[in-house]
Design brief:
This protein is an alpha/beta fold and 253 residues long. Helix content is 37%, strand content 17%. The protein contains 8 helices and 7 strands, in the order βαβαβαβαβαβααβα. It has a 7-stranded mixed β-sheet with strand order 3-2-1-4-6-5-7, sandwiched between helices. Helix 2 links the parallel strand 2 (38-45) and strand 3. The radius of gyration is 19 Å and the shape is globular.
Length: 253
């Protein structure tokens, strides 16, 4: 049987999420079916539990998932894991969600639809969590970080840390890569001249595993990242590639 070219891909980073694999990927398959051919690309980011085995077991049991597994020999971070999954994908449209199960897969069609059927000028649809199911200190730290980021970057995004996003693969791969870039995608897409849309999405409690971040650690790296992204925005291109006209010579006989 010939495999159809996927219309979109679901890219997921995972670190020690063996218990989450069957529930999360099963939800992704259920959400994706009926919207055209799709693929799922998961990066196992140096897990030390049974995540790799769980991913292979799911692929064997669900061939319709078209699951590609990317394995890092050691943890490289969420941005690196997402980037690796997107590079491995062949579909022109990418949807992402976190591997911990807190992003409901049933929200994926809401993010994908504007890109699959909407204007070509739309580059990114960013999910924004409502009624977050996180501890109060984490919610307060996130709210403060988003407020500071919004003032400096003016990206119009209330919740840039939400893992639920959909975007054009070629536009994403044209962005400057750096660690933690996944938290700044709205500002980076706008920097390159793309329209950015937002969609309210649900949020679930974590049912297995443990968070990979602390509030202090997030704040330390966030400050330097924020300054770096602000620097990139100030040095954006004066003329975008889409505005450039190229007049090539006619081919000679």
């Amino acid at each position: 049987m010939t495999r159809q070219t996927p219309r979109f891909a679901i890219a997921i980073p995972m670190l020690n999420e063996a218990e989450t694999v069957p529930i999360l990927l099963g939800g992704c398959v259920a959400a994706a079916e009926g919207h055209g051919p799709f693929e799922i690309c998961v990066t196992n980011d140096g897990s030390t539990d049974g995540t790799g085995a769980a991913l292979k077991a799911f692929r064997d049991a669900h061939p319709q998932a078209n699951l590609t597994i990317i394995t890092h020999p050691r943890p490289a971070g969420q941005s690196a894991a997402i980037h690796a999954a997107i590079r491995a994908a062949s579909a022109p449209i990418i949807a992402t969600l976190d591997g911990d199960g807190q992003n409901p897969p049933e929200e994926l069609p809401k993010l994908l639809a504007p890109l699959l059927d909407g204007p070509e000028t739309l580059g990114l649809v960013a999910g924004q969590r409502v009624k977050r199911d996180d501890p109060l200190p984490k919610r307060l730290a996130s709210r403060a970080a988003n407020t500071i980021r919004g003032v400096l970057l003016k990206d119009g995004t209330r919740d840039t840390g939400c893992g639920l996003k959909a975007f054009r693969r070629d536009a994403y791969l044209a962005l400057p890569y750096f660690d933690h870039m996944h938290r700044y995608l709205p500002a980076l897409f706008q920097r390159d001249g793309w329209q950015v849309a937002h969609a309210d999405v649900a949020h679930k409690p974590r049912v297995a595993g443990a968070s990979k971040y602390t509030n202090l650690g997030r704040a330390i790296v966030g400050l330097s990242d924020l300054m770096g992204v602000a620097w990139l925005i100030r040095r954006r291109r004066k003329v975008l590639p889409s505005q450039t006209q190229i007049d090539r010579p006619e081919a000679s006989n």
